[in-house]
Amino acid sequence: SIALRNGRLKLGSQNGVIYTIDLESKQLLSKVKVHEGGIFFILDNLSGGEDGILSIDNTKIRISESSLRCLLELEHEWIIGSSDAKIYRISKSDFSVIGILEGHTNSVFGLTRVDDFTLISTGRDGLIKAWDLKINKEVHSVPAHMYQAKSLDYNGDLLLSSSMDKTIKVWDDGL
Q1: What's the angle, vertex CA 118, arms to CA 68 and CA 136, rounded to 5?
Q2: What is the pLDDT of residues 47-98, one digit of tens each?
């Protein structure tokens, strides 16, 4: 995983170490072991990895027994996709689990939001799912790819998905 903020590059390794590099001076500022196993996302002082731990500053919170694969940051919460096929909604104020979305059959690799209350997810099952965050329920599902879908992005008009089936798909007007 990789993150760039304020001239500092953070790199997450497969052995749980986060390296911080100052890009101007090209100096290694820190090398800190944060997780057991690989790191799948980094955002400022937050990271998640193979160990199912969400690390925030020096606080470690067990979210799942499986890998934490992807993160979507919202105003008051983080939404995290996991290899246990679940999507966790985590409060930013007290780090509690405020909801769990279940419907995928395997790892969740991609998350995006299309409006204030609609979350889109994808993963190893090749499905794209839409979720209503007001009621914490799946509202739509599409068999989008033949193999695992790795990522999603929404630009305000179009939804893009990419997959290990060697396709990138463009979705409009709803799935």
Answers
A1: 65
A2: 999 999 999 988 999 999 999 999 999 999 999 999 999 999 999 999 999 9
| Cβ neighbours of residue 25 closer than 8 Å, sequence gap 6 or more | none
Q: CA 147 to CA 168: how far, in whole Å?
A: 12
Residue 164 DSSP SS3: coil
d(CA 106, CA 125): 6
Q: With contact defined as beta carbons under 8 Å apart, do 9 and 18 qualify?
A: no
Residue 154, beta-bridge partner list? 159
- Bridge partner residues of 20 (DSSP): 10, 30
Residue whose pair of structure tokens reads 């199912």 in the numeric block: 52
Sheet with 108-115: list strands edge to edge: 108-115, 118-123, 127-132, 137-143
Here the tokens at position 8 are 């500092």
Q: Rg of the chain's alpha carbons, rounded to an integer?
A: 16
